[in-house]
Amino acid sequence: MIVLKFGGTSVGSAERMKEVALLVTNGKKNIVVLSAMSGTTNTLVEIAGYLYKKNYEGAIEQILGLEEKYNKTIEELYYSKEFKSKGRELIQSHFNYIKSFTQDMFTIYEEKAILAQGELISTALFHFLLQEQGINSCLIPALNFMRIDKENEPDSFYIKENIQREIKEHNNCDIFITQGFICRNSYGEIDNLKRGGSDYTASLVGVGVNAEEIQIWTDIDGMHNNDPRFVENTYPLSHISFDEAAELAYFGAKILHPSSILPAKLANIPVRLKNTMQPEAEGTLVSSKTGIEGIKAIAAKDNITAVKIKSGRMLLAYGFMRKVFEIFEMYKTPIDMITTSEVAVSLTIDETQNLAEITEELKKFGTVEIDTDLSIICIVGNFIAESKGHALQIFDALQNIPIRMISYGGSKHNVSVLVNTSDKVEALRSLNEKLF
Ligand SMILES: Nc1ncnc2c1ncn2[C@@H]1O[C@H](COP(=O)(O)OP(=O)(O)O)[C@@H](O)[C@H]1O
Ligand SMILES: N[C@@H](CC(=O)OP(=O)(O)O)C(=O)O
């Protein structure tokens, strides 16, 4: 079995959906994971924003705009009157549900239910499309098998058991369609795997059914060596290892959700990144093979905050680091980079909801400085300990850029530098010129 995930741009119009239909019908029993049509989740987030503020006029305007977009898509998507009418009914029922929130209390639970509508609609529309084409497809609702636990981590055992049950129950189907992104939480409420989470769904589904391969179909021909949104002349990498892909995804390569590689790595299921608009392009294969030595790619992660704790008294004492880390653990805030000196510890975080409380706690150990608007530039590759010159190349490329922190040697796949976000694009371009 192969799991094929199509992102928002890949199902972003009637025309695109028809192309996806051609790609998934290759005679095999595949599982298709779909995101919401592009722009939908962003609009649903905006609608939720209006509803929180009780700005019903603003909410209704957005809701009607989105509904109209879907009604237009229906006209282009289906050929027969029967399916056009089925599509319209489906849209009406989802939008009546969304409109119902303009009359009631609005909390995070309602927000999550609204955000789920994008994937519920795209998968139902796609299922109708395959049915109209005479393809024997089945919808298997993600809300029946995708679950996260109290720590917001996927419940792998539950997912495996329930997706396999769903597939068995629909044994006569040729193509299985399910929603990316959405799930239930440990209380059974509708929840999600965070923005961009459909890749994560694909990976968890792939592991749940022990797939031959997990394919992530998007709007670019694979993982590029640098961020194509900021740098010209980037190129796709034909092969990278699980570790390299995980570092790139975590440090900002938007093509993959940060958590999507780990489940595939643990189950040793290859992940292939493909371009829906150019299916013949080779794409990128992510697997356990390490590949050649050297620098492979660069990514950047924004919205980084640096926290510096200065304490002449405590640092030399053993146990100091543990106390610092415990505070971040207490507030469930992951640390990305860390450096130490004799009198200070500097570290970076990207989740700042609890920064005020963390700062108060840290002040018990010394003075605390907070720096915002920073970016981590992550240089990824296979740096074996004996090889020389990589650091020199990197710092030569960054000679005109103020560097705030450096992390080298933490893993053999990653060198990270912290820069001001205002210098990020120049840093990415300069590294591109010097390294590739
Ligand atoms: N290193 C990279 N390689 C490829 N794409 C990247 C990279 N870094 C950022 N991107 C961006 O990721 C986009 C694809 O991700 P995304 O927009 O989430 O797709 P989808 O909607 O299919 O999930 C590309 O269009 C590209 O601009
Ligand atoms: N629709 C969700 C989930 C997702 O993964 O979308 P995409 O595959 O288009 O990045 C989002 O926009 O966050």
TrEMBL record:
Pfam families: AA_kinase (PF00696), ACT_9 (PF22468). It is an enzyme of class 2 (transferase). Signal peptide: none annotated. Its EC number is 2.7.2.4. The keyword Nucleotidyltransferase does not apply. It catalyses: L-aspartate + ATP = 4-phospho-L-aspartate + ADP. Pathway: Amino-acid biosynthesis; L-methionine biosynthesis via de novo pathway; L-homoserine from L-aspartate: step 1/3; Amino-acid biosynthesis; L-threonine biosynthesis; L-threonine from L-aspartate: step 1/5; Amino-acid biosynthesis; L-lysine biosynthesis via DAP pathway; (S)-tetrahydrodipicolinate from L-aspartate: step 1/4. The keyword Lipid metabolism does not apply. Residues 1-275 form the Aspartate/glutamate/uridylate kinase domain. GO terms for molecular function: aspartate kinase activity; ATP binding. GO terms for cellular component: cytosol. Residues 377-434 form the Aspartokinase ACT domain. ATP binds at residues 5-8, 218-219, 229. Keywords: Amino-acid biosynthesis, ATP-binding, Kinase, Nucleotide-binding, Transferase. Coiled coil: none annotated. Belongs to the aspartokinase family. PANTHER family: ASPARTATE KINASE, ASPARTOKINASE. This is Aspartokinase. It comes from Vicingus serpentipes. The lineage of its organism: Bacteria, Pseudomonadati, Bacteroidota, Flavobacteriia, Flavobacteriales.
